[in-house]
Structures are given as structure tokens and as C-alpha cells.
């Protein structure tokens, strides 16, 4: 058998296990072919930059997020003014996160800011319970602990919802799960995930749990009920692709959009690309809890080097960047393109020594980790609850247009994407605010987009609209009040004009 065939047989990627090819590498091109996704090209990156008016994140510029499914469709819709929501997640199996765990979240944060869209984050405490030797209660606790690290990445609390499966298993979520489950046979699941007769039946039943959040009606407090008309984009590592391949296959049978995907390579382990970063070996990874000293020590002692074995050899032959972990890690975390290029040139030519690039890496990572630790320390239980809260957070009454007709209020503007856009604008205005009154407003019981509107609720809204302009409070509340007032005045003027026209025409017919 040829070497190539050996590699083809050995490389196995599932959401739970990654087996490298016999050369110790993942053949990503082969993987995209096998999975049936597309590679992200320069044109798509430029397009994203153009429509978001934002410079592409280093992960995108450097091909670390390298594959996609229908990301171009998301862009086309976005260009036409249609919004979408982001969905990502984490399986909470360890106390603290290592740097590789931050990668998808840092990228998701960039996507959220660039596209200005809402985000849901799933913590699969159930998945980890089913696959790992852990107690369910521990998985649930880890979900909350890990959420603190996720929040420390800086997500907007107004537009980000974090949930753990076990506690969020509500009716709309379960409804989607059951529908998905019915569409997939055991044989199909075996083919997609590699289940065997030895898999426990919880594992076999799990994929719909991760699939369901791809449909917006799992989150009535954000997107309303019975609403499948919002597209979903999922940033994830490529090993999660099987879940969403399955989801895409069944989406039309649920009446929903196929979720789009943007997928990353694996983060290389400290001791070498194909190694494992495992919690049981603390020297195998750098954790977000590590001190500056630990970071330096780990890099110096354990980072796999592609440099020459001796100074002379390095000077003569230069480093092999293909296998060098400090170089690979700098590609993830050093944002400065110019500097990175210079390091690459000097190190591969032998002008720079291994000790030097390791020093640069330690200097680059230390502030990232230290700043993360500060932000995480600020995530109190109260802050955490804000993200887990299922209070309606995308409010109809903030932006939907109503008209009074024959004494009752009717919605004249139901466009969800426009509504979301408006909501995002309001959030931006709020950011300038120092007062809390807008937040108070947001907490009032309201109605999520698309949710059924009771008469009662319409009456509340009508009363609220009639209220005088707030005398104190946020700028945006004042602006909103001014807008409402202007609209009322316009209506009055139109009424008068109509009456005048009527009179005039009556006068004309009389004469
Ligand atoms: N299964 C993922 C893990 O073990 C967690 C996850 C759930 C996820 N939903 C997701 C990851 C959506 C990416 C996108 O880490």
C-alpha cells in the first residue's frame, strides 16, 4: 500500500477523538474534501472585510479559520440587510481552560462585533457526562466555571445568551431535538459519528442536543417562538463538523435554514503538533490560570522546537517552521503582521535562535493571560446570571412599528432582521450612556420578537408610548421619546391635512 493510502486510513476526526495521519499531521485539505466543506479563500475574506468595514481577525487572515459551509450565503444575505445569529459552544470537562480553548471564543467575539449580531453559547454538560468519567453534578459546576472564562473574552451581555444543556432543557429546545432525532437513523448516526454497539445510548441520542440550537426557535426569549426565519452561523473547530453536517441534512424537514459554518484548524499542542494537551499533564499546555513564570518555564522547557539542535546548526540551517510550536503559536496570538513576517524570516534563516523566539512568545502570551485573569476575576455570580438569564432581551417594543387602527394596535413592521438591526443600534447608543435607566427599561417584562402578543401586553405598550418623555435617563431613551413624539405630531398633521382636503373637496362638490 502506498504511503498516501496509509495516511488516508489513519487520519480520523470525530468530535470526541482526533487521530493524526502517520506523518503526525492532519491533512486539512483532505479533511475538507471528506467532510464536504469549502476552503475559505482571499476573496471571501475581502468580502467579509468590505461588508463589515472591519479588518479581518488574524485567525482569518492567516488561515487558522480555514473552512466554511455557506459563509458566502450569509454574506450575501447580510449585504441585503438580513441579520443572522451566532451559535458556538464548549464541552465543560476541565476546571480551567488552556489557550487553545480560547481560540473559537476570541474569534466568535470578533464576529459578534464585526457583524453586530446576537450570540448563543451552549455548554454541553450532558455531553461531557456521557463521554467522560465525570459526575453530572461536576459537569454542571464546570459549565458555570468555564462560562466565566468565556465571558472574560468580552461578549456583549445584552446580545449574548449562555446556557448549559441540563438546566436549559426547555420545551422549545426539546421540541427541536425530538424532531431532529426522528430524521436520523441509527445507521446514519453510525456513519457520521462512528457509534458502535458499545456506545452508551445517551451518546447515541446526544447529537440532536448539539444540533437543535442551530434553529432560532430554541430561544424564544431572544428570537421569538415559531420563528425559523433567522439564519445561523456557527464558528467551531473542524472536529465539530459532523454534528452540523447532520443538522444541515435535516434542516429542511424542520422548516429551518441549514446552519452556516466557519471552521478552524486544531490548536497545536505545546509539545508538538500531534501531541495532546491534557489536564492530567500540566506541562502539556498553557492554562489561562498560569503565572508569568509558569508561562516562561513551560515555553522554554516544553515547547516543541523546529530549530537546530545546536546554535551552530540553527545558524547554518535555520528552523523548520512547519513543526515549530512557538512559531505556530505566534501565528495565533501575535497580531502584528509585519513583526510576525520578520520573525518568520529571521528564524527560518537562522538569524534568530530558538531561545529568542521562545522569549518573544512568552512576552506575547503573558499580557494576554494576565489580562484574561483580571477580566475573569470580575465575573461575579451576578454577572454570570446576566448571561444565563432567560428574561426577554430582544424586545419587540423597542423597535417594532405599531399603528392604531379602529382603537386597536396592530404591528405594521414585522421584519425580524430589521428589528435586530435597530436593536443593535440602540445598544451602541447605550454604550455611551453612564446612566442605568435604559437597563431598567430593558428589564421590564416585555415580549420577544415574534412571540405571541396578548391584548394585555399591547395595552401596556400603548400606555408606555403615551407616557411623557422621560425627564431623566439615558440619551437613547430621550431620543426614542423624541422620535415617538415626532411621529405623533406627524400623524396629527396628516390627520389635519386629510380633514382639510376632505373639507376642500366637499366644498368643491358643493359649488
Ligand atoms: N461539543 C463541543 C465540545 O465538546 C461543544 C459545543 C456545543 C460546540 N455546541 C457547539 C462547539 C457549537 C462549537 C459549536 O467542545
List keywords for this structure.
54% helix, two-stranded antiparallel ribbon, binds tryptophan, globular, 511 residues, disordered N terminus, alpha/beta, 26 helices, 11 strands, 7-stranded mixed beta sheet
- Give me the secondary-structure category: alpha/beta
Q: Strand portion, in percent?
A: 5-15%
Task: Please tell me the overall pLDDT.
Answer: 84
Broad shape: globular
Low-confidence stretches: 1-8, 395-402, 431-457, 467-474
- Number of DSSP strands? 11
Biggest sheet strand order reads 3-4-9-8-5-6-7
* Ions and ligands: tryptophan
The helix content is 40-55%
Brief write-up:
With about 500 residues, the chain is of the alpha/beta class. The chain has helices spanning about 5-10, 30-35, 40-50, 60, 70-80, 100-115, 125-130, 135-150, 165-170, 170-185, 185-195, 200-205, 205-210, 220-225, 240-250, 290-300, 310-315, 325-335, 335-350, 355-375, 380-390, 395-400, 415-430, 435-445, 455-465, 475-510, and strands at about 10-15, 20, 40, 65-70, 85-90, 120-125, 160-165, 230-235, 260-265, 400-405, 410-415. The radius of gyration is 27 Å and the shape is globular.
Amino acid at each position: 500500500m502506498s504511503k498516501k493510502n496509509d495516511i488516508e486510513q489513519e487520519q480520523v476526526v470525530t468530535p470526541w477523538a482526533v487521530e493524526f495521519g502517520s506523518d503526525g499531521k492532519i491533512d486539512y485539505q483532505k479533511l475538507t474534501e471528506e467532510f464536504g466543506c469549502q476552503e475559505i479563500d482571499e476573496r471571501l475574506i475581502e468580502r467579509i472585510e468590505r461588508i463589515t468595514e472591519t479588518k479581518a481577525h488574524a485567525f482569518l487572515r492567516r488561515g487558522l479559520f480555514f473552512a466554511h459551509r455557506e459563509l458566502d450565503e450569509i454574506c450575501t444575505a447580510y449585504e441585503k440587510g438580513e441579520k443572522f445569529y451566532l451559535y458556538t459552544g464548549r464541552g465543560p470537562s476541565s476546571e480551567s481552560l488552556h489557550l487553545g480553548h480560547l481560540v473559537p471564543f476570541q474569534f466568535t467575539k470578533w464576529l459578534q462585533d464585526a457583524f453586530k449580531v446576537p450570540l448563543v453559547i451552549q455548554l454541553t454538560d450532558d455531553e461531557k457526562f456521557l463521554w467522560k468519567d465525570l459526575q453530572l453534578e461536576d459537569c454542571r459546576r464546570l459549565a458555570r466555571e468555564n462560562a466565566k472564562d468565556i465571558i472574560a473574552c468580552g461578549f456583549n451581555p445584552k446580545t449574548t445568551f449562555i446556557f448549559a444543556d441540563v438546566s436549559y432543557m426547555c420545551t422549545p429546545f426539546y421540541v427541536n431535538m425530538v424532531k431532529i432525532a426522528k430524521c436520523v437513523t441509527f445507521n446514519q448516526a453510525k456513519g457520521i459519528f462512528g457509534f458502535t454497539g458499545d456506545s452508551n445510548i445517551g451518546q447515541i441520542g446526544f447529537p440532536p442536543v448539539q444540533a437543535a440550537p442551530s434553529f432560532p426557535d430554541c430561544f424564544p426569549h431572544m428570537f421569538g417562538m415559531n420563528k425559523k426565519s433567522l439564519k445561523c452561523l456557527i464558528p467551531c473547530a473542524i472536529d465539530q463538523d459532523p454534528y452540523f453536517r447532520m443538522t444541515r441534512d435535516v434542516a429542511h424537514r424542520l422548516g429551518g435554514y441549514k446552519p452556516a459554518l466557519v471552521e478552524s484548524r486544531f490548536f497545536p499542542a505545546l509539545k508538538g503538533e500531534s501531541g495532546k494537551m491534557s489536564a492530567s499533564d500540566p506541562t502539556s499546555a498553557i492554562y489561562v490560570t498560569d503565572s508569568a513564570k509558569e508561562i516562561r518555564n513551560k515555553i522554554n522547557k516544553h515547547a516543541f522546537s523546529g530549530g537546530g539542535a545546536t546554535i551552530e546548526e540553527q545558524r547554518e540551517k535555520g528552523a523548520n517552521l512547519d513543526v515549530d510550536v512557538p512559531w505556530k503559536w505566534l501565528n495565533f496570538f501575535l497580531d502584528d503582521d509585519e513583526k510576525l513576517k520578520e520573525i518568520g524570516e529571521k528564524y527560518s534563516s537562522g538569524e534568530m535562535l530558538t531561545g529568542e523566539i521562545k522569549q518573544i512568545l512568552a512576552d506575547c502570551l503573558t499580557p494576554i493571560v494576565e489580562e484574561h485573569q483580571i477580566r475573569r476575576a470580575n465575573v461575579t455570580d451576578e454577572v454570570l446570571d446576566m448571561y444565563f438569564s432567560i428574561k426577554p432581551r430582544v424586545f419587540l417594543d423597542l423597535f417594532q412599528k405599531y399603528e392604531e387602527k379602529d382603537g386597536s394596535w396592530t404591528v405594521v413592521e414585522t421584519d425580524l432582521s430589521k428589528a435586530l438591526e435597530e436593536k443593535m443600534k440602540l445598544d451602541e447608543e447605550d454604550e455611551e450612556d453612564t446612566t442605568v435607566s435604559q437597563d431598567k427599561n430593558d428589564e421590564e417584562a416585555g415580549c420577544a420578537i415574534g412571540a405571541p402578543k396578548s391584548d394585555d401586553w399591547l395595552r401596556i405598550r400603548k400606555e408606555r408610548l403615551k407616557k411623557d418623555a422621560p425627564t431623566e435617563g439615558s440619551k437613547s431613551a430621550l431620543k426614542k421619546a423624541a422620535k415617538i413624539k415626532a411621529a405623533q405630531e406627524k400623524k396629527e398633521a396628516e390627520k389635519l391635512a386629510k380633514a382639510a382636503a376632505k373639507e376642500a373637496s366637499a366644498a368643491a362638490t358643493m359649488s
